[in-house]
């Protein structure tokens, strides 16, 4: 047994007999789990939106109420999918790697954040060199034109809801579950591919070109590798969640404060 693949909570080493077909089937299963979370998020968002209108009346587009509904839906959706997966896979909440960060974890958090920023700069520079134009996120305009109150809510939600929610599902649930089939290195790659693909709806809206969407997904994949690698090393989902949320806070605020200027706002908040 290769002990390097055994995590602190009793994970298993990769199967030596897993065929490419088995790996592909496993990949598709978790890809469907990722897109299933989007479908559930949409349903929850619709229910909350209708309930809000019934109680408060019409709500302004991009207003505080809409942002609250969006982030609450994401949090509830990812938590519900993670819970359902654990129950159906015969696992319990001990599978979830949530621990108070150690000094080592803090070091990985700081280092991972720096690497993520450097990775972003490298990706933007490469795209400029190749003359590639990434697609814009469907919410870019609403962020640029948001009020200070809404932006404050967005920034807090990135740290407390978006980062933790997405890392719980895509790193702790999907990536860690893939360890049994393909081992840690390939699990990081496959989970990053899934994480990239589930962002297609967010970047294909508004008539974005196929090339622009593909360019953006490639960038998301590269930066997702950093988060996956950090989680694989620390086995504590708090670490990539803090990196993810902090990166988004910096990026969202930069997009808002800059008014979308500079031509890189489409990549400034990838997650």
Automatic annotation (TrEMBL):
Pfam families, per database record: Rce1-like
Record-level Gene Ontology MF annotations: endopeptidase activity
Domain CAAX prenyl protease 2/Lysostaphin resistance protein A-like residue range list: 150-250
Organism encoding this protein: Haloarchaeobius iranensis
GO biological process, alphabetically ordered: CAAX-box protein maturation
Keyword Cell cycle recorded: no
InterPro entries attached to this UniProt entry: CAAX_protease, Rce1/LyrA-like_dom
Top-level taxon of the source organism: Archaea
Transmembrane segments: 30-56, 68-86, 106-127, 147-165, 186-204, 210-232
Keyword Transmembrane: yes
The name this protein goes by in its record: CAAX prenyl protease 2/Lysostaphin resistance protein A-like domain-containing protein
Keywords tagged on the record: Membrane, Transmembrane, Transmembrane helix
């Amino acid at each position: 047994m290769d002990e390097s693949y055994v995590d602190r909570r009793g994970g298993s080493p990769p199967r030596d007999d897993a065929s490419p077909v088995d790996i592909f089937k496993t990949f598709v299963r978790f890809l469907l789990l990722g897109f299933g979370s989007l479908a559930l998020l949409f349903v929850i968002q619709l229910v909350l939106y209708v309930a809000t209108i019934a109680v408060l009346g019409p709500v302004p587009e991009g207003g505080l109420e809409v942002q609250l509904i969006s982030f609450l839906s994401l949090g509830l959706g990812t938590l519900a999918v993670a819970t359902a997966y654990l129950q159906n896979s015969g696992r319990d909440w001990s599978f979830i790697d949530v621990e108070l960060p150690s000094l080592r974890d803090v070091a990985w958090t700081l280092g991972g954040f720096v690497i993520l920023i450097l990775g972003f700069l490298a990706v933007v520079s490469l795209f400029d060199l190749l003359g590639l134009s990434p697609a814009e996120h469907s919410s870019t305009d609403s962020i640029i034109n948001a009020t200070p109150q809404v932006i404050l809510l967005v920034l807090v939600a990135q740290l407390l809801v978006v980062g933790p929610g997405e890392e719980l599902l895509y790193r702790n649930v999907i990536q860690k579950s893939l360890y049994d089939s393909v081992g840690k290195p390939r699990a990081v790659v496959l989970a990053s591919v899934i994480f990239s693909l589930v962002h297609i709806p967010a970047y294909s809206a508004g008539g974005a070109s196929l090339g622009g969407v593909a360019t953006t997904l490639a960038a998301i994949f590269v930066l997702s590798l950093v988060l996956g690698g950090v989680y694989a090393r620390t086995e504590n989902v708090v670490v990539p969640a803090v990196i993810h949320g902090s990166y988004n806070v910096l990026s969202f605020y930069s997009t808002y404060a800059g008014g979308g200027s500079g031509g890189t706002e489409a990549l400034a908040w990838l997650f």
